[in-house]
């Protein structure tokens, strides 16, 4: 069996797939809390192994695909940097392969999500697209000619750390004013903390918004508007057929996507003279990265 594991800022998610094409689904999954940015490399890698073995449930593992929220080198051997992960130029692929005793493939989480959506999701048959994941931070992938663009160093699509506010909010990457500081799960938490004076995690904000709480809905509207503004810049740059949005924050659907669509229209030039791409949800949602990692492993295994 092959397992896909997504290593994000707050959790490690492992999945096993079954079926193909439109019938491809997650057969089982397991989730382990992320040990945190200050954890050691070994602690994070132990969490990855734990999640993979929970999904395997005693069966032998033939290979593991790993989707990492950060800069992965072009050969897929090392995580060079992750704003929300402790890995720094770490040979993650080989260390995990040794721990698990099976082959490992490694790629950026948003690239993996794009692979999943191209193979069996919202990007099937689509030639040019942008994929944005909104979770703890923002991940991104560019699809051109039906393929994920890797860039000279394997690091294309890191939209989350494009500066949108000079001298703006401090980001975990070390810069200030990065897009993800205004458009992420962390932003939701910050907006709610300012409004209510108490801490709520993303899931709690989502539950409030679904129940109609005006403060929570406004928090999603704020994040969604920033999402649209960022997408406008990317649409100006790439002129894609379609924009797909995934990641944990996107689980609320149109509460996030409607303000994003409006933000796109308001922030792009010449709307009367161009066709704007649809902004839609990924098929695999917060599991897209793990699904794509499993598919990468399967296609190479
Ligand atoms: Zn940043």
What does this structure look like?
This is ROK family protein. It holds the Pfam family ROK. Belongs to the ROK (NagC/XylR) family. It comes from Nocardioides immobilis. There is one protein chain. With 301 residues, the protein is of the alpha/beta class. Helices cover 36% and strands 22% of the residues. It has a five-stranded mixed sheet, with helices on both faces. Strands 11-10-9-12-13 form a five-stranded mixed sheet, with helices on both faces. The protein has a three-stranded antiparallel sheet with strand order 5-6-7, with no helix packed on it. Strand 10 (138-144) and strand 11 (147-148) form a beta hairpin. It is globular and about 55 Å long. The relative contact order is 0.17. The model has no long low-confidence stretch (mean pLDDT 95).
* N-end to C-end Cα span: 10 Å
Main sheet makeup = 5 strands, mixed
Into how many domains do the coordinates divide? 2
Major sheet strand order: 3-2-1-4-8
Order of helices and strands: EEEHEEEEHEHEEEHHHEHEH
CATH topology-level name of the largest domain: Nucleotidyltransferase, domain 5
The CATH architecture assignment of the largest domain turns out to be 2-Layer Sandwich
Helical residues, percent: 25-40%
Oligomer: single chain
CATH class categorisation of the largest domain: Alpha Beta
Q: Determine the CATH superfamily of the largest domain.
A: ATPase, nucleotide binding domain
Question: Ligands in the structure?
Answer: zinc ion
Helical stretch count? 8
* Overall form: globular
Structural Rg: 18 Å
Task: Label the structural class.
Answer: alpha/beta
Beta-strand residue percentage: 15-25%
């Amino acid at each position: 069996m092959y397992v896909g594991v997504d290593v994000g800022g707050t959790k490690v998610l492992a999945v096993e797939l079954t079926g193909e094409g439109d019938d491809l689904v997650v057969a089982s999954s397991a989730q382990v809390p992320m040990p945190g940015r200050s954890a050691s490399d070994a602690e994070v890698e132990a969490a990855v192994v734990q999640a993979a073995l929970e999904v395997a449930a005693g069966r032998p593992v033939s290979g593991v695909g790993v989707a990492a929220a950060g800069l992965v080198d072009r050969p897929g051997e090392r995580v060079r940097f992750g704003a929300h992960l402790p890995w720094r130029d770490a040979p993650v692929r080989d260390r995990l392969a040794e721990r698990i005793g099976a082959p490992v493939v490694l790629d950026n989480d948003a690239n993996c999500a794009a692979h999943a959506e191209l193979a069996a999701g919202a990007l099937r048959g689509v030639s040019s697209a942008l994929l944005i994941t909104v979770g703890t931070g923002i991940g991104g992938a560019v699809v051109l000619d039906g393929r994920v663009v890797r860039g000279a160093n394997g690091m294309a699509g890191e939209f989350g750390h494009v500066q949108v506010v000079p001298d703006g909010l401090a980001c975990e990457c070390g810069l200030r004013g990065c897009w993800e500081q205004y458009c992420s799960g962390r932003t939701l938490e910050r907006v709610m903390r300012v409004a209510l004076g108490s801490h709520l995690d993303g899931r709690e904000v989502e539950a409030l918004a679904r129940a109609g709480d005006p403060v929570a809905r406004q928090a999603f509207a704020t994040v969604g508007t920033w999402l649209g503004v960022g997408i406008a810049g990317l649409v100006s740059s790439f002129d894609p057929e379609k924009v797909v949005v995934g990641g944990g924050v996107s689980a609320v659907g149109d509460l996030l996507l409607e303000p994003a669509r409006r933000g796109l229209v308001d922030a792009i030039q010449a709307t009367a003279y161009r066709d704007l791409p649809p902004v839609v949800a990924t098929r695999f949602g917060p599991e897209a990265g793990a699904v794509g990692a499993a598919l990468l492993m399967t296609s190479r295994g």
